[in-house]
Amino acid sequence: MLTRLEDESEGAETGRQAPAQVIRFTFDGRPLTGRHGDSLAAALLASGVLRFRVSPVSGAPRGPFCLMGVCFECLVEIDGVGNLQACMVPLEEGMAVRTQGGGVRVVAGAAGTSEAS
Amino acid sequence: MRCDLAVIGAGPAGLAAATRAAEAGLAVELFDEQPAPGGQIYRAVESVPAARRALLGPDYAAGAELAAAFRASGAGYRPGALVWNVDSTLDIDFSQGGRSRQCRARALVVATGALERPTPLPGWTLPGVTTAGALQILLKAHGCVPSEGAILAGSGPLLLLLADQLTRAGAPPRAVVETVPRGRLLEAARHLPAALGAPGYLAKGLRMIRALRRAGVPLHRHATDLVIEGREQAEALSFTAGGRRHRIESGLVALHQGVVPNQQVTRLLRCAHRWSDSQRCFLPVLDPWFESSVEKVFVAGDGAGIGGAASAALRGRLAALGVLRRFGALDGAALEQEAGGLRRRLVRDGAVRPLLEALYAPSAQVLAPADETLVCRCEEVTAGQIRQAVRLGCPGPNQAKSFLRCGMGPCQGRMCGLAVTEIIAAERGEVPQTVDYYRIRPPLKPLPLIELASFEAAEDQPGDAPPDAPPDDRDAA
């Protein structure tokens, strides 16, 4: 889907650019990697993930649209906290990221759970 | 925490405003959601590798100077900070590092820039469909390009710029599909003589079109009836052009219909806005110093009306002069002289705008999506439902919220607002000015309750400066 430009891996162009540091994280339990300086959304997209959440209205799949913090289509759950904009969150080592189920999962889950939607 | 001037947004306007005001000795705090200065136009400009900087072009590289001047100016800088409320006494509530605090400012420059005009069409909510700006951000900030050739569809200079940049990055788009109606060029041509007065823009545009042709990127003009096909994600774009139906396959489709001011903060502050027919959006009402109808609230950059990056920086400096003028912090004659120079450059740089606005104005079809097309992406409200609500008596966007919940999802109307206004106006036979826009309320983005619970108001913060502290007495937080 997306590939990295070579300047990243070479890193010699500016003389001060060290080879990009690899950061490990998981998405729905699957181990993935990104680069230092990635937003979480960029790291997911570069790993081939397009579907970040399902619509709480219809359950339709959704993924990043604007990547600049205005569309809220890239909402994911990070380390158990929901409703986070993946395009605004810098990628960090060990992040456990999950697809955001939204209201659909709240309704489907046990009544009275405190899960945010 | 207190300051003389708060600036929201670290794009060219915000950087220029903060730099100029700090140079004059004001205590400035610049708040920005991104981790580094540059805004969207100069995103990652400080850290971009040389090869990528070269392919993005000299206009992009120019942002590095603005960022460097800002870094050297002594202005306070708060990256990764979300401003989620501002009241008319200029108490600014912001969230940074998982904590919400308040900064009391004596003046505010809103430099929140632009966002892309909503582009409702069938299939636009499928994963793999993005704005053109999103693909450009992936390139600028992350060095990521489509591996299979994206389709770029819509109208506006950014579409061509992105196509050119992707081609130079070795990832030419599979096709560029322009929705500019036939005959538009001829209509726009009357603005051509004026546009020639602006430095370099037309030459740059022609150069990009030639480069795309040389690279063999198919350009489909006057396209109508765009449909993005796919079930779980985008698979193809189909459209009508040249009298027949086309279908081009790609898992990445980038849409663009120009950019419009990001009005969340000025709407929140209840600044007066007026409808612009030529830009087809609302603009804040501003005086010659870029001060809004709310006292000591200034608006600079594309948020004041779309003018591009060079104009944004000029407007930022002018707004800073407006603030200094308000505070009596600069001698009148010197101020007028500096402002005069900036205004002349602004007129020259803006000379290309009437041509671009006339040429790339959204087509009638773009402004009137079919009944079954989703307009509000968050709450999944269709154009037909909005028209039905109007027939039931719904007079405007705020009532449409009660009818349909449109504009009430997490994006808070950012992605549908203008489209909803246009659809209601057309259905009622009124002008957008009468129909108006969503009322924007705090918080500007959703916040965790724990942040609100532990919120620190300005007067409660330990070690805070008294209200009449000298300008160099910075926040201790």
Oligomeric state of the chains in view = heterodimer
Distance between the termini of chain A: 29 Å
Strand residue content of chain A: 25-35%
Strand content of chain B: 15-25%
Low-confidence stretches of chain B: 465-477
The count of β-strands of chain A is 8
Coarse morphology of chain A: globular
Please state the structural category of chain B.
alpha/beta
Strands in their spatial order, largest beta sheet of chain A:
3-2-8-6-7
Number of discrete helical segments of chain B: 19
Please state the average pLDDT score of chain A: 84
User: How much is the average pLDDT of chain B?
Assistant: 94
- Count of helical stretches of chain A: 3
Classify the helix fraction of chain A into a percent range.
10-25%
Structural class of chain A: alpha+beta
Helix content of chain B: 25-40%
How many strands, which pairing sense, and closed or not: the largest β-sheet of chain B?
7 strands, mixed
Q: What characteristics describe this protein?
A:
heterodimer; A: 117 residues; alpha+beta; 5-stranded mixed sheet; two-stranded antiparallel sheet; 3 helices; 16% helix; disordered C terminus; B: 477 residues; alpha/beta; 7-stranded mixed sheet; 5-stranded parallel sheet; 22 strands; globular
Write up what this structure looks like.
- The complex is a heterodimer of chains A (117) and B (477).
- With 117 residues, chain A is α+β, with helices and mostly antiparallel strands.
- Chain A is built from three helices and eight strands; from the N terminus they run E-H-E-E-H-E-E-E-E-E-H.
- Chain A has helices at residues 6-10, 40-46, 102-108, and strands spanning 2-4, 22-27, 30-35, 53-54, 61-62, 75-78, 81-85, 96-99.
- Chain B has 19 helices and 22 strands.
- In chain B, a hairpin with a 4-residue loop joins strand 4 (81-86) and strand 5.
- In chain B, the strands form six sheets. In chain B, strands 1, 2, 3, 4, 5, 6 and 20 form a seven-stranded mixed sheet that branches.
- Chain B has 477 residues and is an alpha/beta fold.
- At the A-B interface, strand 1, helix 1, helix 2 and strand 5 of A face helix 2, strand 8, helix 5 and strand 9 of B.
- Strand 1 of chain A pairs antiparallel with strand 9 of chain B, so a sheet runs across the interface.
